[in-house]
Amino acid sequence: MKNTIINQTGASIVLFFSVIGMSQALSDGNTSANHFPSVASPTVSAAQCNLAKYNAILTKLINQPEMSITDMLSVHELTYTLEQAIERLQDSLEDVAEELEKVHKASEHLDPNVIVSSGQLYQEKLQAILQETTCPIETANAD
Asked: Which helix (H) or strand (E) holds 16?
């Protein structure tokens, strides 16, 4: 019981200073305060790897019988990386959708040149999203 109170008090202190840090960043005019760093997703492949890795961590955390304050802080921190990965995939899907729309409109106007050129770009962009990605092997962390 005593250790639980100490752990919760320690986590509360961490949460308090995290909130203070975020409040300070916002008061300095930084409205997009990233008070936790995120792992970049510069490519679709990186986004897929980040989603696989950090979603597995999130799944483990949310499926516990009980969630501690430290667990909740971990969830908060990893969501920055998940959000960035999803944004990268959304951007890529928007590019794919734009090319498909060009193909669609060209088919309405019976324009084979645009159908072929935009159709090929659509296929290339879609393949970048659909391809299987091999993520780098990382050293396993001791639990």
From this structure: helix 2-27
* pTM for the structure as a whole: 0.69
Q: Which structure tokens are listed for 124?
A: 């290339």
Give the span between the Cα atoms of 28 and 136, in whole angstroms. 38
d(CA 95, CA 60): 33
What DSSP string runs through 32-53? Answer: T---S------SHHHHHHHHHH
Please name the residues in contact with 50: beta carbons below 8 A apart, sequence gap of 6 or more. 39, 41, 81, 82, 84, 85
pLDDT given at position 66: 94
| Confidence at 136, pLDDT banded by 50, 70, 90 | confident
- Number of alpha carbons in the 13 Å side-chain half-sphere of residue 96: 15
Average pLDDT over the chain reads 81
Amino acid (one-letter) located at 3:
N
The sign of the CA dihedral 50, 51, 57, 58 is: positive
Question: How far apart are alpha carbons 38 and 45 in whole angstroms?
Answer: 16
Residue range 113-130, pLDDT digits in tens: 999 999 999 999 999 888
